[in-house]
Backbone:
């Protein structure tokens, strides 16, 4: 009988620790739908997409002819998000994107008052499917409070569905679309 109680107690501790770990990782994930931007500037535009979370995304529309080599962006079209970070920390940024091809596979990412010279390229080489990509090699030390995140035109044919900020361990990778944490989006009445 004593053995059984010991086993039950031990199992309880394991479950408790696992729950704490999951809660801690989840609590630090701030998830936003791209189409719920605070401000938008053309040529960035909101469009319907049946495979995007909540049925919408934003995109830099394809130029015709689409570049067969790297071309300078036609404008500084962008979406900017004013978000509330509830806990100071070192965050990694992941974005759920859809790239057209090797000449349509990036955005510039700006955080707060970062100037153009310091903008980070969000890019990888997975084309024609929704997937997650991170600003590799970049972490953002954010204070508790409001911050600005901007995704800006770098190439045509780039789409953004969601993005998230996380303090989860480096090995953690997003695997699907997530429920938006809309309580951390700035609203005009705030
Ligand atoms: Ca979306």
Residues:
């Amino acid at each position: 009988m004593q053995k059984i109680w010991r086993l039950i107690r031990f199992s309880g501790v394991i479950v408790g620790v696992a729950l704490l770990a999951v809660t801690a990782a989840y609590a630090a994930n701030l998830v936003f739908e791209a189409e719920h931007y605070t401000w938008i500037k053309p040529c960035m535009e909101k469009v319907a997409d049946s495979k995007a979370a909540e049925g919408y995304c934003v995109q830099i529309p394809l130029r015709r002819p689409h570049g067969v080599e790297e071309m300078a962006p036609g404008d500084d079209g962008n979406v900017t998000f004013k978000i509330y970070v509830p806990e100071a920390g070192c965050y990694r940024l992941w974005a759920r994107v859809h790239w057209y091809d090797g000449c349509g596979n990036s955005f510039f990412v700006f955080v707060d008052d970062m100037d153009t010279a310091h903008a980070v390229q969000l890019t990888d080489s997975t084309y024609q499917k929704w997937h997650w990509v991170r600003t590799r090699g970049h972490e953002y030390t954010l204070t508790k409070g409001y911050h600005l995140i901007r995704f800006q035109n770098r190439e045509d044919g780039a789409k953004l569905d969601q993005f998230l900020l996380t303090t989860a361990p480096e090995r953690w990778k997003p695997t699907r679309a997530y429920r938006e944490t809309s309580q951390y989006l700035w609203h005009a009445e705030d």
Summary: The radius of gyration is 19 Å. The pocket of calcium ion is lined by residues 33-35, 52-54, 56-57, 161-162 (CB under 6 Å). The CA atoms of residues 38 and 188 lie 9 Å apart.
